[in-house]
Design a protein that fits this description.
The structure holds 2 protein chains of 2 kinds. Chain A is built from no helices and 11 strands. Classes of the chains: A mainly beta, B mainly beta.
């Protein structure tokens, strides 16, 4: 079974630039999550999708972050414009459905904003 | 939302010793209690989970115990090995609120 795929693995940008991350979840998984993990901290949920609908985006800074899940499969997370404090690892995870089911994480994208 | 606390934040043990990490949560309605392991440069990976109708679960050297009354659950690793060195996270109820993590170092 193929795992969660993410790209790119690393990205360096200057502040005020824009950046996009891509995630391909495990086939058949209805739920997709985007997390932000700042160095030394636990993952923080940014947005949760169930199929192509948003379940929870309460912690997504909507003035600069946006996300979509096309046709209930792949997803993209965008930051525009980036700030220095956005430097973090962005993790994508998927699960069979939401709630009490194992989440499978991708390797993450390490973003550095200079 | 769930308030999650993990202790200790760092733990160093000698190879072969046991390690215990505790997670305290606030939501009494929580019914699913997973532990994730994150190695350097990788995403977290589930290592063991327990549901609220069970008090303890074991998988080889790893076990999880649950105390719903006190609202905490613990990860137990016995006969630790250097490859157990990683950061461990709890995420009660898979509520997407992870603990701050415990960095475990196993010294050979």
């Amino acid at each position: 079974e193929a795992g969660v795929a993410q790209s790119p693995r690393y990205k360096i940008i200057e502040k005020r630039q824009s950046v996009a991350f891509w995630c391909n979840p495990i086939s058949g998984h209805a739920t997709l999550y985007w997390y932000q993990q700042i160095l030394g901290q636990g993952p923080k949920l940014l947005i949760q999708f169930q199929n192509n609908g948003v379940v929870d985006d309460s912690q997504l800074p909507k003035d600069r972050f946006s996300a979509e899940r096309l046709k209930g499969v792949d997803s993209t997370l965008k930051i525009q414009p980036a700030k220095l404090e956005d430097s973090a690892v962005y993790l994508c995870a998927s699960s069979f459905t939401g709630g009490a089911y194992e989440q499978y994480f991708g390797p993450g994208t390490r973003l550095t904003v200079t | 939302g769930e308030n999650v606390e993990q202790h200790p934040s760092t733990l160093s043990v000698q190879e072969g010793d046991s390690a215990v990490i505790k997670c305290t949560y606030s939501d009494s309605a929580s019914n699913y209690f997973p532990w994730y392991k994150q190695e350097l440069g990788k995403g977290p990976q589930l290592i063991i989970d327990i549901r609220s109708n069970v008090g303890e679960k074991k998988d080889q050297r790893i076990a999880v115990t649950l105390n719903k009354t006190a609202k905490h659950f613990s990860l137990h690793i016995t006969e630790t090995q250097p490859e157990d060195s990683a950061v461990y996270f709890c995420a009660p109820n898979n509520d997407m609120r992870f603990g701050a993590g415990t960095r475990l170092t196993v010294k050979p």
